[in-house]
Amino acid sequence: MYPSRFSYDAPTSVEEVIAILDQNGGEAKVLAGGQSLIPMLKLRFASPARVVDINGIPGLEYHRVDPDGTLRIGALCRHEDLEFSKILGNFPTLSQASSLVADPIVRTRGTFVGSLCHADPQGDWSATMIALGGKIIAQGPNGRREIKARDFVLGPFVNALAFNEVAVEAIVPPAKGKALGGYLKLERRVGDFATASVAVALDVDGDIVTRAGCALAGVGGRTIDANDAISVLVGKSLNSESIKEAAEAVAAAAEPRTDHRGSSSYKRHIVETFVTRILSNIANSEQKAA
Amino acid sequence: MTSLYDEVQAAPAAGVEVRRITVNVNGTDRTVDVEPRLLLAHLLRQALQLTGTHSGCDTSGCGACTVLMDGRPVKSCTVLAVQANGREVETVEGLATASELHPIQEGFKEEHGLQCGFCTPGMMLSAKALLERNPDPTEDEVRWALSGNLCRCTGYQNIVKSVLWAAKKMREQNQEA
């Protein structure tokens, strides 16, 4: 298998990328890690006239935490950079997901921001970003704009970028209070798409939840935004009662379909189990720490 | 100078974009004219006749085509050849010298780490990348590092043993050096 013909550009600045995208009116596609785009080119699900390879642009590989606690992830930060990162201590949802994305070889090439742009309903990172209340910075001919992660994914494989915009950075805001969270994924084997996965992110003041975020992958035609469902936790502490209430609310927000990975009811059950497990793990480790 | 996809045609058709790239493969610079759509796996196997890199699933799922690019394992069926321009690529052919097997190859021999051998080149390169980062991995760490490489014969047991054997041998060699 090989892709259909395309013209190839390897610009060395974001401005050049935008100019190429702008000139090609929707017929150009940005190539970052390529771990989703190249298979799609080979399968001819995608056949853009131009491929704009951004791997030669210096200064986009970073991920860093600002003094105020904001996490910034550049467009060429690879999955494995996050997996082996030493600075994600305040971002447990991300660090737990980082070793579950695809497989180790894909993680050397694939990028965090590229994965968000790909907007796969089963993608891990979109779920974590929606749970964390993250944002994506898009840059186009008229400068930069921020797009909330929950507004970024419009549907399966459809994101909110204009044809002449490129996503240059992802931002996770600092927690108000203590950041707690987790990510659990059921997959048939390493590298398979998620049967179901759950991202949970909480801000906690003392033992009271001040913000609760949750999103699901693999259980709907797009990443499921379960932030409203899990907000039943806000103002409460984590105990068996509140955990049960939250798990049931989140499971009700899932839109699973029966397929070769499992029945709809099985997947919903997994979601409820995973939410319970993540929240119970948090409650137990907080109790031990106290 | 070979132009690919030369399985389609010997010379590029008029108007077909061709890029001249230079890739350091196993220590030697190789210059080839390629179409941008050429995959690294096909550059290695067809243009450079390095058929030790195996094409398995062709859909980024199996890891058989794994090579090292600037030292990190990549699925060569999921990287464009033009993206390897100016970079160092190591394939299974780069492991042994004329007279000596690489310790990882020795390990696979000693511990019977293969049956049909199709996944072996990819396994060995993933193992090499692991041992460069972590010379003394646990069994779990070996299993984790190889989890992107599928084997349909062995059940992985002997592959893991082979990598642990190689890790020990390489540590001993480093102590002597």
Describe the protein.
The complex is a heterodimer of chains A (290) and B (177). Chain A is an alpha+beta fold and 290 residues long. Helices cover 34% and strands 25% of the residues of chain A. In chain A, 51% of the residues are buried. Chain B folds into two domains: 4-94, Ubiquitin-like (UB roll), CATH 3.10.20.30; 103-176, DNA polymerase, domain 1. Chain B has helices spanning 40-47, 103-110, 120-133, 139-145, 157-176, and strands at 3-4, 19-25, 28-34, 66-69, 72-75, 88-90. A six-stranded mixed β-sheet of chain B has the order 1-3-2-6-4-5. Chain B starts with a strand and ends with a helix. In chain B, 46% of the residues are buried. Chains A and B meet through helix 2 and helix 5 of A and strand 5 of B.
Task: Present the secondary structure layout.
The complex is a heterodimer of chains A (290) and B (177).
Chain A: E1 7-9, H1 14-23, E2 28-31, H2 37-42, E3 50-53, E4 63-65, E5 71-74, H3 79-83, H4 92-98, H5 104-109, H6 112-118, H7 124-132, E6 135-140, E7 143-148, H8 149-152, E8 153-155, E9 158-159, E10 166-172, E11 178-186, E12 196-205, E13 208-217, E14 224-225, H9 227-230, H10 240-253, H11 264-289
Helix pairs in contact in A: 4-7, 10-11
Chain B: E1 3-4, E2 19-25, E3 28-34, H1 40-47, E4 66-69, E5 72-75, E6 88-90, H2 103-110, H3 120-133, H4 139-145, H5 157-176
Parallel strand pairs in B: 1-3, 2-6
Antiparallel strand pairs in B: 2-3, 4-5, 4-6
Helix pairs in contact in B: 2-5
Descriptive keywords:
heterodimer; A: 290 residues; alpha+beta; Uridine Diphospho-n-acetylenolpyruvylglucosamine Reductase, domain 2; Uridine Diphospho-n-acetylenolpyruvylglucosamine Reductase, domain 3; Enolase-like, domain 1; five-stranded antiparallel β-sheet; four-stranded antiparallel β-sheet; 34% helix; B: 177 residues; alpha/beta; Ubiquitin-like (UB roll); DNA polymerase, domain 1; six-stranded mixed β-sheet
